[in-house]
Design goal:
heterodimer, A: alpha/beta, 10 strands, globular, B: alpha+beta, 6-stranded mixed β-barrel, two-stranded antiparallel ribbon
Amino acid sequence: MIQAEPQTPVPVVAARDLRKTYQLGEQQVHALSGVSFDIQRGEFVAIMGPSGSGKSTLMNMIGALDVPTSGQLAIDGTDIGLLSRDELAALRNHTIGFVFQQFNLLARTSALDNVKLPLTYSRPRVADPEAIARRCLEQVGLGARMDHVPSQLSGGQQQRVAIARALVNSPSLILADEPTGALDSATSIEILQLFESLNAQGMTVIMVTHELDVAAHARRLLRVRDGKLVEDAPVTSRLAEVAA
Amino acid sequence: MTLAEFIATAMIALRRNVLRSVLTTLGIIIGVGSVIVMSAIGSGASKQIEAQIASLGTNQLTIFPGSMNVGGRQGGAGSAPPLTEKDLRAIRENVTGLVAAAGNMNGSATVVVGNTNWQTQINGSSAEIQAVRDWPLTAGRFYDPVEAAAGRKVAVLGATVARELYGEADPVGTNVRLNNVPFEVIGVLSVKGQAGGRDQDDVIIVPLATARSRLVGRVRVPDEIGQILVKVDDRYEVSEVQADLERVLRQRRRIGPNAMDNFSVRNFAEFLATRDATARTLSLLLASAAAISLIVGGIGIMNIMLVSVTERTREIGLRMAIGASGSDILGQFLTEAVLLCLAGGFIGLTLGAGVSVLISTLFGWPVYISPAVVLMAIFASASVGVIFGYVPARRASQLNPIEALRYE
């Protein structure tokens, strides 16, 4: 475990010389070859990179879905390399809120039940999952459509349900994988504005994208290429203008 | 996840594809249904035989004249000297361990009451027959040994005869004509039911001496007795009493040490018990054959659960991403398989019970569904769910969440 210095707050994500190697037949593929960074509480970070850059591998590790071959990745101070399968599941359950490109809502299940789903896997059990789920749906502006099933909702509304689901366990960070990839541009902006407002309320948001204008809504940009971190910079107003 | 949540989740998944769920459980439905029907028929038959044994009395022996070895060298029954009152007296005096011994002669007669008539069996019996056969009365009284010896014209009616001739009216004190001879009805017997395919209540019992002189006709010796029935005291071993009885009769009938018996002793209850055992074995065999379809049904469940796991790979990936542990996923799919099998089990149970009732009404076979079989059927279907649902559920629980989420 990475022990934080007493003075500095524990970063939400702390990556140290992160490496991931896959064995593809005879060949060794280095998906990540030494990546280090910290993400502090309250940041809004975009991770960009072309396909094959190691961006997805990095995202899977931040999401505690995968563990590094070497190096360390700590989420809220917990080194995920030391955790078992079930401990990783528990960590995902209370510290990470996932938002996917394809929403991944359960079909024929109401928005409310979809949002409640993570709470059914929580240990210890929460007292009133229904009330929490309602509050989260209201927070994303879907208070009036709680009983609708996904097929009765538009793409943007479905993604809002997914965001409410990500919020329901009060996670330390929201990890969004191409959250606007399946949406038209007007709806995309609404969803991105929702992320911005959540971030303004103190939520740490990490967003993986390959579109610059999407990344422009974040406040810090990490660029990955060939398994390495090639840029770590604040999103400048100029970038935002270019994107616009 | 709690059990209630597992069940709720499984219900949603099963309802998503009702037709497939029903088709999948068809094997279980047929399996459980046929086990129920087989065992219902089997235990029905066995229960009927047991009732017959109880109605005959387990410690009752019947002695016939001549060889019962039908088709044997000795010739048929009747070729040997008949049983007589002297044989009966010898048994009463010399055989230990008997509650009672009674002589009996069978005949048939047309009974006439007013303008109603009925063809029935006549048992000419000693007064002791009631004790031997454990046969209580519902009305009136039985004749005593004095009346029997005097050859009084009194009759005790079987329940069927009383019903056919008198309906609801009380026959005691009235007169009936048996082959045109008037008899006074002094009692009515309680219901004994069927035995050996014959209605035991379709009978009239009259004193043996009366029957011999008035109803049977052709007697070879004046004191002939058709059969002797004895009841063995509970404290004695039936087989030992039977050996004693055979010894006494051989002595009485002066049969040499190397000659064969010219009488035979039979224990009907024992004979029926053998039939009961046969019926049980047969029904067990049929039920286990039916149980094989449960296994086939289980394989069907496994197959469809494997398909379901593949179809729902993304859902599994999502559940894992938001925090489902391996045991959560295992529990979810196991619950689904068990629910599927239990539903099939209950449908099969209902169907099997329905078919059993149908068979009982159509063919008049006795059927009996024992609570133990019902419990066993439910337990068996749940077990099939656990056993055949485990492999697919385990496969689901061991999916890699990253690959599962990316699965198209």
